[in-house]
Amino acid sequence: MRDFLNKSLAVLIWIATGFNVALSCYTGAMIIRYSPMQLIGDSTVILYGFLFILFGVTLSLVFAGICFQIMDIRTFTKHVALNQRRV
């Protein structure tokens, strides 16, 4: 069971990243769509929406990269521990 969970962890990270990217794109689009055009300038709202999308996607991918780095560190330390045990 543990091996199955370790192998499916990468898939779960990509699924969570995909949901987060989709959510940030949707939120940025809704910021642009439902903005009060009369109160705030048109270009300001569009810029804010696109920046929200850009930073949301970037943060999602950075989070996925950090998760994969943690997985690599766990795998590396497990192999080092097994090699130390054999010596």
UniProtKB/TrEMBL annotation:
TM helices/strands, residue ranges: 12-34, 46-68
Keyword terms: Membrane, Transmembrane, Transmembrane helix
Top-rank taxon, per record: Bacteria
Protein's name in the database: Uncharacterized protein
Natural source organism: Cereibacter sphaeroides
